[in-house]
Amino acid sequence: MTLQMLLNQAVALHREGRLAEAEALYRQVLAQSPPNFQLQYRLALLQHQQQRPLEALESLRAALAVDPKSVEALVLQGMLIAAVGTPQDALASFDRALALKPDFPDALYHRALALIALGRLDDAVTDFDRMLAATPDAAGAWGNRGVVLQRLGRLAAAIESYDRALALLPNHAQTWLNRGTALQAQGRFPEALESFDRTLKLAPRHAKAWTGRGGALMGLQRLEEALESFDQALAIMPGDALVLQQRAVTEKAIETLKDIPDDENALSAWQARAAFQQIAQRFDDALAALDKALALAPDNSESLTRKGAVLCEMQRTAEGMAVYRHYAQVMLGQEPVTLETDPAHKRRHDSEQRDYLFSIGVNDLGFRLEPGARVPIAVNPTNAERIARRWRESDPQIVVIDNLLTEDALEGLRRFCWGSTIWRRPYKNGYLGAMPETGFACPLLAQIADELRDVFPTIIGTHGLRRTWGFKYDNSLSGIPMHADQAAVNVNFWIAPEDANTDPESGGLVVWDKKAPLDWDFARYNTDEVAIRAFLAEKGAKPIVVPHRANRAVVFDSDLFHETDTIRFKDGYQNRRINVTMLYGRRAFYGG
């Protein structure tokens, strides 16, 4: 039998899926023939099909040594390099292919996948768009484009992309599932439910579809049916923490949403209803319930603080801050700033603050709120595009922004933090907290929160302000221990004067490059430092150290574990380290 006959037989076996027999013949031909591109390329394809990427790469290198301009071989090489975990190196192969054949669909498609792995989501969308301009019938590209757009928070565009994919491939269960999650994120619960049902018709044991269906039914307040869907998910994934959380919330909501009697229990019932509606992101319904509660008890603590939180999360930030400020004035206006039971570091701070207030002509030692007025521009728009690009390209997602605030905003915020007697919550490590409900709320903070969203839409997206606070530190004690936060995006910035920090290489934040597992509950990822450090050691996590600078922000995925770096600041009240934290959006799911 001639070599050509052997090769033809090998190709036929390969096409029939008889891979082991085909490989044996390919190797027999290779042993008896000079270097041959097609033979080495076919062998690489076969090894790729058998999930032997390292051997396939060796075969491809031999093929490209014969024909270095084969676009198909370069694309396959990029795919294999990406498969062994180096997507950055894979880009070089795709770029070589595209230099030889611009807009080659396979190169664009797999380059987009590599860009997704690198977190360069906008660039991935660009490649998908270039590919789809030439091959508009590529269902997989439409589907993956939708996933990227959804991750970018561009939900309407993601849904359109899913619809294009499903028009071409109507029985693709994962695309129906993705479409359902995007619709649910928009609050379009009936359409989301339809998408989850289509997923389950195609894949009846798809646990995530049952979970999504339960969430959509919660949004529709069909709570008994939601329980049934969560139970179906748990039958497939017994003990799944996230599903158990959602099921528990649903059970509580069934009790909460019963008819509210017009008696002494009405206040707590309206408050419980508001809490559920806030969790379900039905903010208008939450506000309506809170207004019912406040009509019964206008200065009720729980109702006022929840109303402030709901307004901030629905992007009515100035209104929310005004509610918090009113609450602080009502609740703290008659309380002494310093108590005998306060720890030494708080008493020391309060004494320094009294001296500062005397120095600026303030003799009233009671509760005091600086105006914290708005300024013409609060967030510096300079380099917004560069910061957005760095966010897209970073993995993990973390960016450092210097000169975050304009000079007017920075000075106004310093005056607010120095002059307001809002630092009421002492922590054992030596720092003090100011929360919105203790007066860390003013028009300037609302302006900063809204302008951060406007100036950095790629980072903040459509997320509402979930929570904000300030921390002020003792110059000789430690800071916040290791934790992650219950949000999507964390904006942390520092406002102490530049020369307050005696060590320019520290005093800032340490962010670790590993995220809190999604099945950890709040108590574990926020307070269990032993478990956190054990997890980071197991995963080989590495620290990213960001030194303190005045008016510097560190913006990162809130799931990343982080802690305060060593503090070495000068003595003196105005030299105290102050950081402001703004949390936007929500974690994948939270229980309350």
Structural topology:
Elements: H1 3-15, H2 19-31, H3 37-49, H4 53-66, H5 71-83, H6 87-100, H7 105-117, H8 121-134, H9 139-151, H10 155-168, H11 173-185, H12 189-202, H13 207-219, H14 223-236, H15 241-256, H16 266-279, H17 283-296, H18 301-313, H19 317-332, H20 344-359, H21 384-393, E1 398-402, H22 407-419, E2 425-426, E3 431-434, H23 443-455, H24 457-460, E4 465-473, E5 489-494, E6 509-515, H25 522-527, H26 529-538, E7 543-546, E8 552-557, E9 560-564, E10 578-584
Antiparallel strand pairs: 1-8, 2-3, 3-4, 4-10, 5-8, 5-10, 6-7, 6-9
Helix pairs in contact: 1-2, 2-3, 3-4, 4-5, 5-6, 5-7, 6-7, 7-8, 8-9, 9-10, 9-11, 10-11, 11-12, 11-13, 12-13, 13-14, 14-15, 15-16, 16-17, 16-18, 17-18, 18-19, 19-23
Notes on the protein architecture:
- This protein is 56% helix and 9% strand.
- The chain is of the alpha+beta class.
- The mean pLDDT is 88.
- The strands form 2 sheets. A 7-stranded antiparallel sheet has the order 1-8-5-10-4-3-2. It has a 3-stranded antiparallel sheet with strand order 7-6-9, with no helix packed on it.
- It starts with a helix and ends in an 8-residue tail after the last strand.
